[in-house]
Amino acid sequence: MRGPLRRAGMLTTSVVAISLLAACASRNAPLEPLQKARAAVNTAMNDAKVVQLAPLELKSATDTLAQADTAWTKEADATEATHLSNLAVRRAQIAQNVAQTRQLDADIKQAGVNAERQRLQGDAARAQQQADQARAAAAASATAADRARQQTQAAQAQVKDLQARLNELQAQQTERGLLVTLGDVLFEFGKAELTSQAAPRLDKLAQFLTEFPNRKLLIEGYTDSVGTAAANQTLSERRAASVQSALASRGVAADRMTVRGYGKDFPVADNASPEGRAMNRRVEIVIADENGNLRSRR
């Protein structure tokens, strides 16, 4: 009997040894979901904006990854490790989208141009909605998270670009449209010819109009109350026509521009003082909004 018992004991010992070796091999073998989770969390950790703007969401992702590592390397629980790995990927994606959304909010707060603020806020709301939708989709798809990030970056670029251009134009938002005013100092004294000082502003205005080719504009000339009504009317029309000609020479299509002269009508200041008269001698350029709305005076 001693022989069979000895063989049985040896067999039991072999089975235990094989089981231990299998467990060790399982823990040492790579787990694909865990590898993907490590890559996703590392990507989020290497993004400075995520680290700065979404620290709590990023910590949630790193903590979940650590739990997945423990489940696999110490407990060899593939099911739990896979579940935690997938959860870590989703939380890393959420951290990235939260950072993008918060960055967009900060950019909008810096927009200092009253002229287009309402439109910019509308764009931001749509971008926020897209970011929210992308963040929800990121729970199931990394591809959706990438698309949301690209959309957010594009929206940020549009906001910054438009803000900069409006600042350069010194534009004001009015009920009639976007208003750019050219003062009397940009014209020869008592004449319709533009001075060389007008060139930089006209260059910037023409560039803006070229980039928004669907926007039409009104070019309106005004004078002070000095002189006869007929002379003022003629001068206001000629100055408006000079601006039209200058813009046309810079590539703005003639059929986009309507020229009018109003003489001494519609003053913006009191003609009793030299300063007030100087403010009234002007050319106003009214640009249609993004919907094409453009209101003339009469």
TrEMBL record:
Region entry Disordered: which residue ranges? 119-149
- What organism does the record attribute this protein to? Diaphorobacter aerolatus
Q: Which Gene3D superfamilies match?
A: 1.20.1270.390, OmpA-like domain
Pfam family name, one: OmpA
From the Swiss-Prot or TrEMBL record, state where the protein is found.
Answer: Cell outer membrane
Q: What is this protein called?
A: OmpA family protein
**SUPFAM superfamilies xref list:** OmpA-like
Pinpoint the OmpA-like domain residues: 174-291
Q: What is this organism's lineage?
A: Bacteria, Pseudomonadati, Pseudomonadota, Betaproteobacteria, Burkholderiales
> Where is the signal peptide, in residue numbers?
1-22
GO cellular component terms, alphabetically, are:
cell outer membrane
